[in-house]
Structures are given as structure tokens and as C-alpha cells.
Fold Gamma-glutamyl hydrolase 2.
Amino acid sequence: MFAEAGGARVIPLFFDDPWTVISSKLELVNGLILTGGTKKSGPYLEVVKKLLQKVKEKNNDGEHFPLYAINLGFELLLNIISESNNVLESVDAHKLTTNLEYENNVSIQQTVLGSFPLALRNKLKTDCLVSFNNKFGISKESFYNDKQLSSFFKAITTSKDKSNKDFITTIQANNYPIVGFQWNPEKNAFEWGSPEIPHSLDAIQVTQYAASYLVSEARKSRYEPPVEQVLENLIYKYTPYYSGAKGSGFDQTYYFDAYESSTSTEALAQK
């Protein structure tokens, strides 16, 4: 629904599908979202490494192909680019709603947040409009001391956890259309089971502008996938279930056919 809020349709990827299947689906889309979750190792991590390499290759070959990495996706990007499984630190940001603090050395206008209206950018600094559900993150010191991370990404924002510890919360690649959120831009508009998530007009606009930026980046691609193949693979072929009544925190959940794959791990934005 997050990609749909920006005007895109979605094709789900399943990490336990053969890579040939995953790779063929990548040819049906114009951008990629690495979603949240819990898997940080094993086959899932290896697939994410391949996906990141594919995103870089597409852009190196002249196709504008954006990537949004949210929460777990953000953490995996840090692990992969730093080439270390120890770059993440403990943060006390479980069920936390807070503000964003902009880094002084970054021109916000040249980043994903530059697409937000000035008034909303200012409110992001002062109001609690972004939500976290994290036990891991990376401090400013660790980020800037890691030459691989700080050369590949620019840090856009930081936030303070419940213990007043600063940690990096928004990053953007210097040479690729890759954005990472440690916070959850999708939750404000689409998740109602956790009372700390904000649903004010400003909070909803945060979701909408974040989604619109992703899709605007996908629209820069001149590649037009075969319509018939796109229609055959859209997420609409699967049935969402109302799970909010169980108090899980998620209002809708997809249960994919176990014959096809057990878990949906990435969602693809198709313009």
C-alpha cells in the first residue's frame, strides 16, 4: 500500500524463489523496496546482496532504478556496504515515535526530504512524526568512522533513542538513487495496531511524500516492461487478510501460497 500511495503497483519478490525467477521479476519493474522484518543472515541476506548488486548494475548501465530500504532493509544495507556484520549497535528505539534532526553538512534540498514542503520539513524537526521499532542502529561516530559507509552514503538525519543516544536514521547514496530509512515512513497511514504511531495530517503527509518521491524516481526510468507479464505478477493476485482484530499491529496481512514461496520479503514499485 505504501508504493500504491505514490501511484505505483507492486510485484512481490520471494527470497526463497530461484534467483532466475527473482531476476526475471526485476525486469518487470522500475524500482525496488527492501521491507522491514527480522532476517539478517542466511539465504535472505545473500539474496539482498544480489539485489543490491543488480540495482547498482542497472544504474551503471544507464537505467535509473531506485531502491528504498526500510528498517531491516536499512540495516542490511549498512552490513553489506560496510562488509561487516558488527557495524550495528544496540539502540533503545522499540515502539518509539520522535522527530528527525538534520545533519548540518548536508543540503536537504538534494535529498529525499527535499521533496517535502518546507513547512513539513520544519515540523519533522520539532514534532513527533516518525516511528521506530528498532533494537539495532548505528551511531553518528560509527557511521562517520566507517570509510566505506561514509563514502557510499551521506547521512541526512539522526534521532535520539529513549536513552538519549544519537543514531543515524536517514541515509542516501552519493552516486545511486538509493535511500535508507531506519524509521518507518509507511506506518503512519497504514498501521493502526500500535498506539504510538502518529496519524495526524502532518504524519499522513510524511507517508505520502515519502511514497511519492520513490515513485517519482521510478518514473525517471524509460524502461517499459511487457504489460501482460506485469499483470500476471502483480500482488493483486494474492488475497490480503484482515489481521487487525488479533492485535498483531498489522491491519492487513498477506499469506502467500506455500507452493510458490513461503515469505514475501521485497516489494517492487512499478510505474
